[in-house]
Amino acid sequence: MTDMPEPRPEANPIIKANYPRNCWWVATTSDQVQREPVALTLLEMPVVLYRKEDGGVVALDDRCPHRWAPLSSGKVTGDNIQCGYHGFTFGPQGDCVRIPSQSQIPSRCRVKRYAIEERPPFIWIWMGDPERIETGPPEQAQWPADPAFSFWTGETVADGNYMLLKENVLDLTHFGYVHATSFKILDWVNPPKVTTTDDTVTYRQEFIDCTLPPMFAEATGISMSKPVNRYNYGTYISPALNVATLDIEDPDPEPGTRSTYQFKVIHVTTPESPTRFRYLWFVGFDIPNMDPQMLLKFKNITDIGFAEDKAIIEAVHRRITHDPRHLDYPEIIVQTDQAAIQARRKLAAHLERDRQGPDAI
Amino acid sequence: MTDMPEPRPEANPIIKANYPRNCWWVATTSDQVQREPVALTLLEMPVVLYRKEDGGVVALDDRCPHRWAPLSSGKVTGDNIQCGYHGFTFGPQGDCVRIPSQSQIPSRCRVKRYAIEERPPFIWIWMGDPERIETGPPEQAQWPADPAFSFWTGETVADGNYMLLKENVLDLTHFGYVHATSFKILDWVNPPKVTTTDDTVTYRQEFIDCTLPPMFAEATGISMSKPVNRYNYGTYISPALNVATLDIEDPDPEPGTRSTYQFKVIHVTTPESPTRFRYLWFVGFDIPNMDPQMLLKFKNITDIGFAEDKAIIEAVHRRITHDPRHLDYPEIIVQTDQAAIQARRKLAAHLERDRQGPDAI
Amino acid sequence: MTDMPEPRPEANPIIKANYPRNCWWVATTSDQVQREPVALTLLEMPVVLYRKEDGGVVALDDRCPHRWAPLSSGKVTGDNIQCGYHGFTFGPQGDCVRIPSQSQIPSRCRVKRYAIEERPPFIWIWMGDPERIETGPPEQAQWPADPAFSFWTGETVADGNYMLLKENVLDLTHFGYVHATSFKILDWVNPPKVTTTDDTVTYRQEFIDCTLPPMFAEATGISMSKPVNRYNYGTYISPALNVATLDIEDPDPEPGTRSTYQFKVIHVTTPESPTRFRYLWFVGFDIPNMDPQMLLKFKNITDIGFAEDKAIIEAVHRRITHDPRHLDYPEIIVQTDQAAIQARRKLAAHLERDRQGPDAI
To answer: Is C312 close to A99, i.e. CB distance below 8 A?
Structure first.
């Protein structure tokens, strides 16, 4: 192979670590953490979570500072966690409380502790500078705790950059193509109205005198042939969270029935690395105590639909990462991309703030 | 691990992208492309192929310029292909003919289109500069369309550089070792005569008063113990194509039987990347309407034999790519390598022409 | 993805090639090499081993210098090995003795030959400078050939750096955590006494008036409740070899029984690469002809225990290689690490000697 020619210039792009550390992220859901240690990868960091005897959640770097074994392979004793290699034991603040082979504990022998805010159904984590911690995670993900709602949930891991999912849920003109046979929302064609605040981006799309797609007709009991008004809007709240709402307005309700309904979605994205993220969703109606069979049916439709999103996102990710000549080939931006483009700008500003802090690398 | 010493210098070689773009390559075979989109990787590029309503083959970059979804995950509508993400639709020339969410189509919204020449059984593709397109693919691969021939075919994907296969079929002294129990051609020992033209390299080996290996005896009906003459010759036609021929000459044919037969092989190599290629072969005799059972038997032998080549080539490739000290260890060149060495030179010249054109990177 | 921010600095550490070439390593065990070629990866080099007609072991670079096929895919003929690609044949010294296609043999056509010392049950190999070869491999691994011992053995491959295993067996305070339910040695808590020579590191731990863990009680017939003295000591002999001994002293033996027993362990580590090694162990008692059922039971316990070591070592290795911010996070060193730290120093000195020789890269 000695007289083979020079290679073409290296062009494979590196997907970047585009997630700010100074941000509330969703580590996992409340039901996933009990007394046993749970190992997670969050923003490339190994993290171990467990509950203390009083039920409070502890989050520590999942690495013993002695020989770097994962603490998650050890066991919880009282409020502490004991490494499975040599028994070094750490308290909920990350301080070493016991080294079995000696009485003196080196002052540097401690693990990083992360702040946790549990707001069921979510366990939020702050991975950034403790000095810059923000007051609580976003409020917009609280409705599943409201008994006025019936909801279902699901989770997947996608091999792609998390922003591809954020951009996906900010341009819903993909419904008619990606989800033509699952969600069956076929009339979402035009670009939405987009507004922004300092940190958020919101689209709004109105469907006046339109009919309801099957799932919404079934949930509300409104006939699929009856004209109603649909007001769709959704918001990029933070790198961790997008929410979406559909207000259904029946201008001529049957006697004794409601004239408005609300359908809500929470899209939670937690990057494990620049090329992989966990995607968690909660979906529900403001209808109490819905029939479990109906909820299960809706969960199945949603699982299928979000698997369709995962498939297309992973395919896009492969194109971005594997195409050797991508630089000749910029993205085409059209009007329906407006919300996603604005979200990229919010993210870029967030990352810039991240870099300027004392925790900057 | 902190006081571990410095690493040895990095020595893993990078296998180079040694395939000219200005060359006719075989994308696939005619039977593999119908109306449904077919996704291929050709010279590291994702390409989608489909047939128009008139049967003509279209080849486009398999990436929507909007959000980079693979067009192959969409569907063919009429002569166009519609992206499966947001419905952007492209015509056979790569021009965007529809964006569902808006009427205006940005002028840059188009995908690259590749020239196709279908000459059954092959679909040839030109991935290089359209201004430098050459007049048609090589003629030497046309015999399978000739009813005077009976043939069989096969295909595999090998994890190695495609030139390893080209070099393999230019030095057939490997028959006695790699294929001792499959092709059973055990008398190919001496170096062949090698001749070249501007672009091609041909070896020629003559076996006078020799016997026939089993497959050739069975196909021709000549006894394995009868001395005949065998004239083997093969040519590096281009980076995409090698061909080989065996002329069998029976100097004393049985009454009413032929005195000459021809056996032909087409070796098609299509790189997917510097470290992977598709290998496609057509093999046949100039005997019409051979018995299907005999053809199937010969196909089985060939599949086994070419799997032996794949195995040794992949093993060589692993040595080339994984040995950390390979630079101390040049190849030993002997007389039987003459054709392969000349082929490397033709390839190097081809790559040099490639670089000098306006399409150069 | 065009306006995404700059990536954080690359931080994934590279595990280094921390194995000296000028060292006797264990290639494999005597029973693993017969006449058929055996392919091994030793210190990143592909090596082929086979036995000559007189039983002597040959070790050659496993790459034909012609086209780099692995010689191990060929066959042994007499005392030689014949490449499976074009039949080039090499003698036990690595000299080419036959090229089938020509009579002249280029002087450079040879493969590197490695010195072998077979001392059953081990085949030792010298991969370094032949001029600097040391007089024979270490003597401390010879006891399995002594009929006074009964022993068992096992082998595994671990995805980690080999020094993690060396450090593991030099700090046995992990017994109470990693092996709490397998070896059941729960009283190894305090730091051992550590001594060194120019090249070796030895720990020593004494347990006076202590009881025996189950396996030792069963082997010796001493009751688990009887106080005895245990003298444990182990040595880092070389990068290839650690040994450990337990002397059991019964101060008040039953009439007609022995008052002392010896239990011995050989830990052999052979790196395949900086991130993978083979781990081979021999374990035995100085009790002749032990019951095969008892030996099998002990082998099962040992296999389980050493699989526990493999699991924790691989987990540590993943932390070392995958954590992007490890540099902020030095190891905490405590008193029980003393032997491991000394072993690192012996290794560093060995690697420094390696670099200074004429074989240095």
So the answer is: no
